[in-house]
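Why this split exists: single-chain examples teach little about how molecules sit against one another. For that reason, every record in the complexes split bundles all components of an assembly together and asks for one structure covering all of them. Below is a record exactly as it appears in the raw files.
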Amino acid sequence: MKELCPRFEKAMELFSKRWVGLILFELLDGSKRFSEMESELPISGRLLSERLKMLEQEEIIERNIYSEFPVRIEYKLTDKGKALEPVIKEIQSWSENWVTHEEVEVDKEKE
Amino acid sequence: MKELCPRFEKAMELFSKRWVGLILFELLDGSKRFSEMESELPISGRLLSERLKMLEQEEIIERNIYSEFPVRIEYKLTDKGKALEPVIKEIQSWSENWVTHEEVEVDKEKE
DNA sequence: GATATTCAGTTACTTTTAGTAAGTTAGTTT
DNA sequence: AAACTAACTTACTAAAAGTAACTGAATATC
């Protein structure tokens, strides 16, 4: 196997984990709590928890606890995470230009 | 659940399938055949076949058969596929700026 | 003309990851 | 002390990925 750039491979591995892109998109406009993301995305609590833990470990997001009642825990992008904004924006722009209405409809039928 | 843009969701779903990013990266510098991609990427024939079929269906790549001996089948990006170049480039640039040598090493140890 | 070679896949099977739903914990509030 | 809330976990099932051996078509070689 040819050596691809290992950093690039690592980045792709991260991005190709389901929900990561949408979670980052959610956090682009500021910090969010667990329950907000859970209700705004079609992801289950189990996986959301797993992904947030992983993204925190990769230092892409940051977890902050506020000891109020009820406890408030907020997630937000670090600088490393914010640096992914151009990636998200490019995907967004591609999808607007190239993903057709029809394709989206076909996918809906499968559900 | 809030409605995200369905086109964006669709694009993310595509991109978050394992190996899609690396396959597209491979095809950025021209057409490739099955065996080339198989040897240049750490992906098995089974999945490569599955992904190529899927990308062809999405009209992101194009499959061409040349009846020589032995048969030559080449895959290349369509315009829709080429339009993904900025996405790949942004991921590449992010990985160069933010993925550390250490992170890559830690991942290697897991193997 | 039987045997071997090459590319491009398939098939059958195991392991890992994702999805679902119910349960847990800590700190209130009533 | 019973009930509520946010943020998770746990236990279980289903889907996707990984592995390795096999197939098929078109030559080429003996």
